[in-house]
From TrEMBL:
Gene3D superfamilies: 1.25.40.390. Keywords: Cell outer membrane, Membrane, Signal. It comes from Chitinophaga oryzae. SUPFAM superfamilies: TPR-like. Signal peptide: none annotated. One of its GO terms (cellular component) is cell outer membrane. This is RagB/SusD family nutrient uptake outer membrane protein.
Length: 527
């Protein structure tokens, strides 16, 4: 499986070119259409270039960095993107993260369009050719979906545009939403439910339905989300990962090489977390820390008894803030997701508040908060010559959470599937089943599901979308951000002060380059 992208990379180098505008990417190359589109191998390579644009977790478009645009984490090192500027409300139409996203996704859309326009020239098995076409259409829809979730209404592009006709206008969000749902719905029946392990990274029918569910949840189209998530569940292809080793926590193992080949991954990027060690790991163990968890995220995890820290009262809250793993009595997903002060990791005691040492808070390549992201860290990468850890863009756990939330929002909160799916997720992680006597109203179940999403999907990018669709963006992204408790003061360290204008910051800015190049393009509000 790991060799697939070597072939894809070669194809990309042959077929892809640079651009003056993000919607046009023609540039003279040594390989022309007339001598490229001939064989099945040519078609496979060209389709591989469409997949090459998939985002990773700690590479490419860095989906895990979206945590730093929520209340889960903060990011430093502008060489990886100016996420800190966005969190502080300082971004503008030159913001590099939006610029790169716009450029990359339209490049990928154009590759898909060119594939669909030219693949019929190739001499190959007709059934495989048809499947390839549906893969390209579904991937093109995915890139439109990704763009819309960040920018709102965008130009729908279904042909490879030439410079003379490349000045496109923005379609409405509804038009883009309808296009994406229509395309994915049309492609799903023609794509396999499963592929062999060597091609498991390809888009399947289950991926199409899972993407529709995710998109529909964002736009509060709960009937559509319920239907699409149910399609994935009814396929009986996916299931939550449970380790064969009874001595390890299945949730923790899921994000390591030991759990990499699993049936929980619905949509993933091969090698998408290959540089996780140089993105999240403590500097003292040879890593680099670019993204650091916040105290608010750490405090959101329940105790092993299923109690929130707020339910326990201020004394207990202070105790767990000082020692998040007090008496090993926290949700095991916290232990699997976050490294904390005083913890021994890879034989190194983490001391972010020491007067000297590599792990001191705030120094270059060290934590900004006193905490570290542990999810997707595997010690094998510490000295590994060729890290290759995959990144799961969508997991089956998220599909189950989307389905349960859709039921609750539709008023069907007493449906037994809600509790059953939550219990499946919680018990896999080592947490108790839901107390049905306590969570016995729509509002209580709504709050439980939101907390479950935070614990289960921490640092996977979901929170960025959740705080927007739940209408709490302004509540959680304004004011002070705190990290771990400083022993010298007994108080959580102040990390930064954030500023959020909801009307503006709900969306990314349209890049200035595109506005200058395309007179028909319009900017998002207040940029």
């Amino acid at each position: 499986m790991k060799k697939i992208y070597a072939v894809i990379f070669s194809a990309v180098m042959l077929t892809c070119s640079s651009c003056e505008k993000f919607l046009t990417h023609d540039d003279p190359v040594s390989v022309t259409d007339d001598n490229w589109w001939k064989t099945e191998a040519n078609a496979t390579g060209a389709l591989g270039s469409v997949y090459a644009g998939l985002p990773g977790g700690s590479s490419g478009r860095q989906l895990m960095f979206l945590s730093a645009l929520s209340d889960e984490a903060v990011a430093r090192q502008d060489t990886r993107g100016a996420y800190e500027a966005y969190a502080k409300g300082l971004q503008n139409s030159n913001w590099d993260v939006a610029l790169n996203l716009w450029r990359d996704d339209y490049k990928d859309i154009r590759r898909a369009c060119r594939f669909l326009e030219n693949v019929d020239r190739c001499y190959m098995d007709s059934s495989l050719k048809d499947r390839y076409k549906y893969e390209a259409r579904a991937m093109r829809a995915y890139y439109h979906m990704e763009m819309m979730l960040f920018f709102g209404g965008i130009p729908i592009v279904t042909e490879s545009l030439e410079p003379a006709n490349s000045n496109t206008t923005r379609n409405s969000e509804k038009e883009v939403y309808d296009f994406v749902v229509s395309e994915l719905t049309a492609c799903a029946p023609h794509l396999p439910d499963v592929y062999n392990n060597n091609e498991a990274w390809r888009i399947s029918s289950g991926v199409c339905w899972a993407l529709i569910a995710k998109l529909a949840m964002f736009y509060k189209q709960y009937e559509t989300a319920k239907m699409a998530a149910q399609k994935v569940i009814d396929q009986n292809v996916y299931k939550l990962y449970r380790s064969t080793n009874t001595k390890v926590n299945s949730f923790a193992e899921l994000f390591t090489y030991a759990g990499e080949l699993n049936k929980e991954r619905v949509f993933f990027r091969d090698n998408g977390c290959s540089n996780a060690w140089r993105t999240f790991a403590p500097y003292g163990v040879g890593g680099q820390t670019v993204v650091s968890p916040t105290m608010k995220l750490v405090n959101s995890f329940e105790t092993l008894q299923g109690k929130t820290l707020q339910e326990l009262g201020p004394d207990s809250l202070a105790l767990y803030q000082k020692d998040p793993f007090y008496k090993n009595n926290r949700d095991p997903r916290l232990v699997a997701s976050v490294l904390v002060p005083g913890q021994v990791y890879e034989k190194d005691t983490l001391r972010p508040f020491a007067s000297e040492g590599s792990d001191r808070i705030g120094i270059l390549n060290s934590t900004a908060t006193g905490f570290w992201v542990k999810k997707y860290l595997d010690p094998k990468d510490r000295n590994g010559a060729s890290p290759s850890l995959d990144y799961m863009i969508i997991r089956y756990a998220e599909v189950l959470l989307n389905y349960a939330e859709a039921l609750v929002e539709l008023g069907d909160w007493q449906n037994p599937d809600v509790i059953n799916h939550l219990n499946d997720i919680r018990t896999r992680a080592g947490m108790p089943v839901v107390d049905a006597g306590k969570y016995n109203t729509q509002e209580k179940l709504r709050q439980l599901i939101r907390r479950e999403r935070t614990a289960e999907l921490a640092f996977e990018g979901a929170r960025f979308y959740d705080i927007r669709r739940w209408g709490i963006l302004g509540d959680v992204m304004n004011g002070q951000v705190h990290g771990a408790v400083d022993p010298a003061t007994g108080a959580p360290v102040l990390v930064e002060t954030r500023s959020c204008n909801v009307e503006r910051d709900f969306r990314y800015p349209i890049p200035l380059n595109e506005l200058l190049a395309n007179p028909k393009m319009t900017q998002n509000p207040l940029y």
